[in-house]
Amino acid sequence: MKTIKWKLIMMYLGLVFIVMIVSGSFILLRLQTIEMDKARNQLEVYAQKVSEQVVLLYEEDSFQSGLIQFAKSGSTTSQIQGSILDRTGVTLATTTTSKPPYPQYKNSVIIGAMSGTPTFSKNKIVDSSGSVFLGYAYPVILNDETTYVVYAQMDATSIFDSIGQTRSTIFVSVGIALIISAIMGYIFAKTLTSPIVALTGKAKELAQGKLNQSVRVYSHDEIGQLSDSFNYMARELSRTVSDITKEKSKFEIILHNMTDGVISFDLDGKVMHYNSASLKMLDTDAADFTFKEFLERYGIGIGLYVELMETPLTKKVNFWVGKKYITAAFSPYSGEGGIDGMVLVLQDNTETKKLDDMRKEFVANVSHELRTPLTTVKSYTETLLDGAMEDKEIATDFLQIINNEADRMSFLVRDLLQLSRFDNKQIELNVSEIELNGFVEENIRQSRIHAENKKQTLSFTPYPKPLVIRADKDRITQVMNNVLTNAIKYSGEGASITVWLEEAEGFDKIYVKDTGMGIAKEDIGRIFERFYRVDKARSRAMGGTGLGLAIAKEIMELHGGSIQAESQLGQGTTMILSFPVRKKREKV
Ligand code: ADP
Q1: SS3 for 443-499, per residue?
Q2: Ligand 1 closest atom vs CA 551
Q3: Quick one: fold of 431-580?
Q4: Which atom, in ligand 1's list, is nearest to the CA of 483?
Q5: How far does the centroid of ligand 1 lie from the alpha carbon of residue 472, in Å?
Q6: Domain extent listing, the chain
Q7: Top-level CATH class of 4-162?
Q8: How far is the CA of 527 from the centre of ligand 1 (A)?
Q9: CB 3.0–4.6 Å: which of 383, 442, 528, 548 could bond 553 by disulfide?
Q10: Long-range contacts of 239-248 (CB under 8 A, 24+ apart)
């Protein structure tokens, strides 16, 4: 019942009802007044005429005979019946009957006239037989007092009947009008509200996310314009939502394809967005933390939260996640009412950190390696200058030492320069075909003297068939020399060094095995690093720079091959140089 449709119908009905009732009542009253006035006029004229006759009869002293005459003048067909009453209201003569007993009238009209005022009955008078009358009483004043009353009455059945009929006609009309207006009102309200109902339905569907909505426009009135506006709004909304969806999916694609990790938190510290890179960096399967929990879990400390809230500027923090070195940039973002949340960009800087550490270590190593011979040179030079120069023998010894140290420095600088050229990719290989049996034999021949000096046996078993590789002979010789020198250097007296060749898995391999001191498991992986030496003092004492194997590794990799070490502490070491087998077309 609260719908506009019902309200409209009720208003419509109410309006029709009021108009009908007011106009009906007005017509009824008007009719009643006209009928009453007409009856009153007739009764007045009649009563006045009778009253004049009464006065005449009284003056002529023929009152009694006049009364009889008056009674006889009446007729049953006449509409108006008259009666002459004395001052007490007793009927003296009447036109309704010629013989007594006369009907006695005692009503308000007669009482009014008895007091000297002509009175008309505004309401109907009902007699004992149930007949309906209208009465008029007129006082006959003789000698300044009411002596008689002329009472005239009229049969008012037809008047009241016609008024009654008019009233029921009006009631019926009101009823019919109400039924018609209810039907009309229903149709009108339905016409008016059905587009609104349709609009409401479509608006609900729109709110539920079904964006392709449009309503039919039946007219160009206000509702038509509303429907037009709705259709426009739905179109615009659909376009905007599709734009936003496209932007969102673009954003998601960018977010998930970023190599940097991104996590955003809202003001309550809940995670709003994150990408897979961030989870990978944080070694976790889900972003199941709040901002504060994140700070605690990764050991950053809750103090940063307070700091960021006080001064909302981007702050970079580094922390470790296992072996990963992560740099996190915390950027608070603001809305209208201050800080709205936090965006976190994570970068895996493990490699950069490693390189940075290596660079620092390298600089420290170079400085250290240079400082030792420089200190020696400086102190011996000073001693010489202080007088040792005079003693030729000592001076020769000292100069020899200075010369050796200068050699060390120049080897170091030579190796460093070579490594720097590798780093800058400035090395060009002078490739030629090398037969490995002959190549190894030649190298062994050069190193044999050093092995013999240490009473070591250095043996080579040639491969049953020639193995030809394509390589830069000078560089490979440098590698081979370094490996053989190391085998001799890091093996004691009487050790045996064996060299052999193998071809396996697409590689031609040179094995150099010694029975020396060996290398501990934890050091094996590191001996190819620059300046890494298992025993620094020993290596230095033997003239090593700690760069030999690093250079060997660079050279082997430049040839598409590798250098590997297998060793057991105290048992000896095997170095394996692998060269890729030449492809057939290269053989030509
Ligand atoms: P170095 O100039 O010190 O010899 P290298 O780069 O040639 O530098 O070797 C790095 C380190 O590897 C050496 O200091 C040594 O500790 C270890 N090493 C290399 N070859 C052997 C080997 N055959 N036996 C034992 N240790 C070795």
Answers
A1: HHHHHHHHHHHCCCEEEEECCCCCCEEEEEHHHHHHHHHHHHHHHHHCCCCCCEEEE
A2: 6
A3: Heat Shock Protein 90 (3.30.565)
A4: 20
A5: 23
A6: 4-162, 211-257, 260-348, 353-423, 431-580
A7: alpha beta
A8: 7
A9: 528
A10: 241/211
Closest ligand 1 atom to residue 528 Cα is 6
Which atom of ligand 1 is closest in space to residue 491's alpha carbon? 24
- Pocket probe for ligand 1: among 486, 526, 531, 547, the residue whose CB has the most ligand atoms within 8 Å is 486
The residue whose C-alpha atom lies closest to atom 16 belonging to ligand 1 is 534
- Phi first, then psi: give them for residue 85, nearest 5 degrees: -115, 150
Determine the atom of ligand 1 nearest the C-alpha atom of 514.
23
Tell me: domain 260-348, CATH 3.40.50.1970, correct? Answer: no
Residue located nearest, by CA, to atom 19 of ligand 1 = 486
**Are 4-162 and 353-423 equal in CATH topology?**
no
> Helix count (H) and strand count (E) of the chain?
16, 18
Quote the ligand 1 centre to 396 CA distance (angstroms): 32
Q: What is the Å distance from ligand 1's center to 489 Cα?
A: 8
Taking Cα atoms as reference points, which of 405, 420, 262 lies closest to residue 345? 262
Q: Write out the chain's pLDDT in tens, 588 residues.
A: 578 888 888 988 899 899 989 998 999 999 989 988 998 999 999 999 888 888 888 888 778 888 887 877 766 667 888 888 888 888 888 888 777 777 888 788 888 888 888 999 878 888 777 788 889 999 988 888 878 899 998 888 888 888 889 889 989 998 998 899 889 889 988 888 888 888 899 899 988 988 888 888 888 888 889 889 999 999 999 999 999 999 999 999 999 999 999 999 998 999 999 999 999 999 999 999 999 999 999 998 888 888 888 888 899 999 999 999 999 999 998 887 788 899 999 999 999 999 898 889 888 888 988 898 899 999 999 999 998 889 899 999 999 999 999 998 998 899 899 989 988 888 888 999 999 999 999 999 999 999 999 999 999 999 999 999 999 999 999 999 999 999 999 999 999 999 999 998 889 999 999 999 999 998 998 999 988 888 777 777 777 778 999 999 999 999 999 999 999 999 999 999 999 987 654 443
Which listed CATH number (1.10.10.10, 1.10.287.130, 3.30.420.40, 3.40.50.970) goes with 353-423?
1.10.287.130
Yes or no: say if 152 and 138 are a contact pair by the CB < 8 Å rule.
Answer: yes
Nearest to 8 by CA among 188, 197, 224: 188
The minimum-distance atom of ligand 1 relative to the CA of 517 is: 25
Strand partners, 505: none
* 539, 554, 571, best to mutate for ligand 1 pocket (most atoms within 8 Å of CB): 539
